[in-house]
Amino acid sequence: MARFAAVGGLGVLVNFAVFNLCRALTPLPVVRCSVVGTVVALLVNYVGFRYFAYRDRDKRRPAREFALFLVFSVLGLVIENGVLYAATYGFGWDSAVQSNLFKAAGLAMATAFRFAVYRTWVFRPRDPGDEQGLGPGEDPGGVGARPRSAVPAPRPGQDGRPWP
Question: How many CA atoms lie within 13 A of 45 on its CB side?
């Protein structure tokens, strides 16, 4: 959890820095600036999660991992920016301070969601007995699947024959 928090903290700083720079320097609406900040932070976070926070997790399916990361990140982006959208366009609260407060509230909700799904679905723990990188309960069959032997091959000297 500490490594997730460290990477997430960096992502929050990047998110708010890009958001406020975009808001100050471009004519884009506030929610679009927030989406830009969120996307940049997600790219930073993916690298941090893969190579720092979850570096010990299964790395055998990088395309699947990245696809799941994108799907859940987009859902988190909707949560985060949905709160800001409601505050800005539903209540008219769009000063810089109000926007940052509601962005922070949305980010807190999205972070709780992301923490749960990233560690469960995206950066999956390795199954110690699994040679194929499958998670618990996944079917090892299919194209290219290697059959598993029920009995491990004997080591030299364990099969009753003398050691050479």
Answer: 27
d(CA 91, CA 45): 31
Report the run of H or E that residue 103 belongs to, with start and end: helix 96-117
pLDDT value at residue 148: 53
Q: What is the pLDDT of residues 18-31, one digit of tens each?
A: 999 999 999 999 99
Residue 134, burial from CB neighbour count under 10 angstroms (0-12, 13-18, 19+): middle
CA distance 29 to 84: 12
Q: Which residues contact 9 (CB under 8 A, 6 or more apart)?
A: none
Buried b (16+ CB within 10 A) or exposed e, 5-30: eebbeebbebbbebbbebbeeeeeeb
What is d(CA 99, CA 4) in angstroms, rounded to the nearest whole number?
25
Q: What is the DSSP letter of 87?
A: I
Residue 54 DSSP one-character state: T
Q: What is the mean predicted confidence (pLDDT) over 39-52?
A: 91
Cα 26 versus chain centre, distance: 29
pTM: 0.69
For residue 93, which amino acid is it?
W
